Amino acid sequence: MKVYIVDDDADMIEVMTLMLDAAGHRVASSVAGATAIPQIVEFKPDILLTDLVMAELDGLELCHELRENKGLRAMSIAFVSAKTDEFWRERASNAGAVGYISKPLDTNTFVETVEAFAAQ
User: Fold this and answer.
1) What is the pLDDT of residues 106-119, one digit of tens each?
2) Strand, coil or helix: what is 4?
3) Taking phi first (over 0 means left), then psi (-120 to 50 degrees means alpha), and beta for anything else, what does residue 79 get?
4) Following CA atoms 18, 5, 110, 17 in sequence, which dihedral angle do they give, to the nearest 10 degrees?
5) CB of 7 within 8 A of CB of 50?
6) Are 40 and 67 in contact (CB under 8 A)?
7) How distant, in Å, are the alpha carbons of 17, 55, 60, 65 from that of 14?
8) Residue 8 pLDDT
9) Positive or negative CA dihedral for 10, 11, 12, 18?
10) Mean of the per-residue pLDDT values for the chain?
11) Share of the chain above pLDDT 70, in %
Protein backbone atom coordinates (compact mmCIF):
# COMPACT_ATOMS: atom_id res chain seq x y z
CA MET A 1 0.00 0.00 0.00
CA LYS A 2 1.19 3.54 -0.76
CA VAL A 3 0.67 6.09 2.01
CA TYR A 4 1.27 9.84 1.85
CA ILE A 5 1.49 11.78 5.14
CA VAL A 6 1.04 15.54 5.55
CA ASP A 7 1.75 16.88 9.03
CA ASP A 8 3.55 20.03 10.13
CA ASP A 9 5.20 18.01 12.92
CA ALA A 10 8.21 16.21 11.45
CA ASP A 11 8.46 13.97 14.53
CA MET A 12 4.87 12.78 14.02
CA ILE A 13 5.66 12.02 10.37
CA GLU A 14 8.68 10.00 11.48
CA VAL A 15 6.65 7.95 13.99
CA MET A 16 3.89 7.16 11.47
CA THR A 17 6.45 6.39 8.75
CA LEU A 18 8.37 3.97 10.96
CA MET A 19 5.21 2.02 11.83
CA LEU A 20 3.96 1.90 8.24
CA ASP A 21 7.40 1.01 6.83
CA ALA A 22 7.71 -1.84 9.33
CA ALA A 23 4.39 -3.19 8.03
CA GLY A 24 5.75 -3.17 4.46
CA HIS A 25 4.02 -0.06 3.12
CA ARG A 26 5.58 2.63 0.89
CA VAL A 27 5.47 6.04 2.54
CA ALA A 28 6.10 9.57 1.28
CA SER A 29 5.48 12.76 3.24
CA SER A 30 5.51 16.53 3.49
CA VAL A 31 5.38 19.05 6.34
CA ALA A 32 3.23 21.50 4.32
CA GLY A 33 -0.12 20.94 2.62
CA ALA A 34 0.40 23.51 -0.12
CA THR A 35 3.68 22.02 -1.34
CA ALA A 36 2.42 18.45 -0.91
CA ILE A 37 -0.25 18.65 -3.61
CA PRO A 38 1.98 18.11 -6.67
CA GLN A 39 3.86 15.36 -4.80
CA ILE A 40 0.58 13.62 -3.93
CA VAL A 41 -0.58 13.85 -7.56
CA GLU A 42 2.69 12.24 -8.71
CA PHE A 43 2.86 9.58 -5.93
CA LYS A 44 -0.81 8.52 -6.32
CA PRO A 45 -1.17 7.07 -2.81
CA ASP A 46 -3.84 4.60 -1.78
CA ILE A 47 -4.41 6.73 1.31
CA LEU A 48 -3.51 10.21 2.49
CA LEU A 49 -3.03 10.83 6.21
CA THR A 50 -3.24 14.51 7.04
CA ASP A 51 -3.16 16.63 10.15
CA LEU A 52 -6.10 18.94 10.65
CA VAL A 53 -4.39 22.11 11.87
CA MET A 54 -1.49 23.32 9.73
CA ALA A 55 -0.22 26.69 8.54
CA GLU A 56 -1.01 28.00 5.03
CA LEU A 57 -3.26 25.14 3.91
CA ASP A 58 -5.00 23.18 6.66
CA GLY A 59 -6.09 19.58 6.39
CA LEU A 60 -9.70 20.41 5.50
CA GLU A 61 -8.63 22.72 2.66
CA LEU A 62 -6.13 20.11 1.45
CA CYS A 63 -8.87 17.47 1.46
CA HIS A 64 -11.21 19.72 -0.54
CA GLU A 65 -8.51 20.51 -3.11
CA LEU A 66 -7.55 16.88 -3.59
CA ARG A 67 -11.17 15.78 -3.95
CA GLU A 68 -11.36 18.12 -6.98
CA ASN A 69 -8.61 16.15 -8.73
CA LYS A 70 -10.22 13.43 -10.87
CA GLY A 71 -7.06 11.33 -10.81
CA LEU A 72 -7.18 11.08 -7.02
CA ARG A 73 -10.86 10.35 -6.47
CA ALA A 74 -10.15 6.71 -5.52
CA MET A 75 -7.61 7.79 -2.89
CA SER A 76 -8.81 7.45 0.69
CA ILE A 77 -8.19 10.38 3.03
CA ALA A 78 -8.00 10.10 6.82
CA PHE A 79 -7.26 12.78 9.38
CA VAL A 80 -4.76 12.33 12.18
CA SER A 81 -5.38 15.02 14.77
CA ALA A 82 -5.32 15.96 18.43
CA LYS A 83 -8.69 17.66 17.92
CA THR A 84 -10.93 14.82 18.99
CA ASP A 85 -14.38 16.32 19.50
CA GLU A 86 -17.29 15.41 17.23
CA PHE A 87 -17.35 18.87 15.59
CA TRP A 88 -13.98 18.22 13.90
CA ARG A 89 -14.78 14.61 13.03
CA GLU A 90 -17.95 15.78 11.28
CA ARG A 91 -16.09 18.50 9.38
CA ALA A 92 -13.52 15.92 8.24
CA SER A 93 -16.27 13.57 7.06
CA ASN A 94 -18.01 16.40 5.21
CA ALA A 95 -14.72 17.24 3.48
CA GLY A 96 -14.53 13.69 2.10
CA ALA A 97 -12.46 11.84 4.69
CA VAL A 98 -13.10 8.15 5.31
CA GLY A 99 -11.72 8.19 8.83
CA TYR A 100 -10.22 10.00 11.78
CA ILE A 101 -7.32 8.89 13.98
CA SER A 102 -6.80 10.66 17.30
CA LYS A 103 -3.42 11.83 18.56
CA PRO A 104 -1.63 10.59 20.55
CA LEU A 105 -1.49 7.54 18.31
CA ASP A 106 -2.31 4.08 19.59
CA THR A 107 0.73 2.21 18.32
CA ASN A 108 -1.06 -1.13 18.77
CA THR A 109 -3.84 -0.29 16.28
CA PHE A 110 -2.46 2.48 14.07
CA VAL A 111 -1.33 0.38 11.08
CA GLU A 112 -4.44 -1.82 10.98
CA THR A 113 -6.66 1.28 11.24
CA VAL A 114 -4.85 2.91 8.30
CA GLU A 115 -5.14 -0.32 6.28
CA ALA A 116 -8.88 -0.50 7.01
CA PHE A 117 -9.39 3.13 5.95
CA ALA A 118 -7.40 2.55 2.75
CA ALA A 119 -9.72 -0.30 1.82
CA GLN A 120 -12.78 2.01 1.91
Assistant:
1) 999 999 999 999 99
2) strand
3) beta
4) 0
5) yes
6) no
7) 5, 19, 22, 25
8) 93
9) positive
10) 94
11) 100
